[in-house]
């Protein structure tokens, strides 16, 4: 079913979220205090309106309570972002996602009613750092502080070897849960006798430290 989202603050982050939600066929209301920004968004979202989100009446008038999710992406003005979340919570919005500039800001946003707090710059920086340290790692999902699921591009030196040959589980305590081929086809729970092909990506689950050990494939150089 079509979902209704409102995005408050159409800076780079808010605008990108609003656009992505709209392009995925959701109904998106964009709200910003700046008229120029609203003009630019007329064709990018379902509706774009000028309003100050720290004004309770304006939010009430657009029926903000009826939206499934409201995303608060007011940048530098922490006071305005906090006050906006307070008002949304007061008005009974069930799902409030708020962008925080730092940990303290995030803590306050959670306390005053944000259901989810996101730290886009920090998260992107961590992802990029992770990728820089392990270039074979294509993507990852953090399951907890210690465990994750990661996609690792296999180096050409293990093409032609099987999972059994590589003995990954015994060596690293890491489980290969799927293999994605170059043509995007997947082998879920691959057969241990599967022979790796060029450009395969293995999707593994395990401890971060152990996955990192596997991802540099040092042990396999002389085999
Ligand atoms: P990004 O990195 O995502 O671009 P930013 O830190 O540059 O974020 P800002 O430009 O500070 O973000 O703010 C985001 C948007 O929020 C701006 O377009 C600004 O006009 C809008 N905004 C600020 N205060 C309010 C408010 N009280 N009500 C509605 N919109 C607001």
What summary fits the major beta sheet?
6 strands, parallel
Task: Indicate the CATH architecture of the largest domain.
Answer: 3-Layer(aba) Sandwich
Strand content: 25-35%
Q: Considering the protein shown, what is the CATH homologous superfamily of the largest domain?
A: NAD(P)-binding Rossmann-like Domain
Q: Largest sheet, order of strands side by side?
A: 3-2-1-4-5-6
CATH domain topology of the largest domain: Rossmann fold
Q: Class of the largest domain, according to the CATH hierarchy?
A: Alpha Beta
Bound molecules: adenosine-5'-triphosphate
Summarize model confidence as the mean pLDDT: 93
Sequence stretches where pLDDT stays below 50 over 5 or more residues: none
Describe this structure in words.
By secondary structure, the protein is α/β, with parallel strands linked by helices. It has nine helices and eleven strands. It has two domains: 4-118, NAD(P)-binding Rossmann-like Domain (Rossmann fold, 3-Layer(aba) Sandwich); 123-221, 2-Layer Sandwich (Alpha-Beta Plaits). Helix content is 35%, strand content 25%. The strands form two sheets. A six-stranded parallel sheet has the order 3-2-1-4-5-6, sandwiched between helices. A five-stranded antiparallel sheet has the order 7-8-11-9-10. The structure holds adenosine-5'-triphosphate. Adenosine-5'-triphosphate binds at residues 8-14, 31-34, 37, 52-54, 73-77, 80.
Write the layout of secondary structure elements.
Layout: E1 4-8, H1 12-23, E2 27-32, H2 35-40, E3 47-50, H3 56-61, E4 69-72, H4 78-90, E5 95-99, H5 103-111, E6 116-118, H6 120-133, E7 137-142, E8 147-153, H7 163-166, H8 168-172, E9 175-180, E10 186-188, E11 201-207, H9 208-215
Parallel strand pairs: 1-2, 1-4, 2-3, 4-5, 5-6
Antiparallel strand pairs: 7-8, 8-11, 9-10, 9-11
The protein binds adenosine-5'-triphosphate.
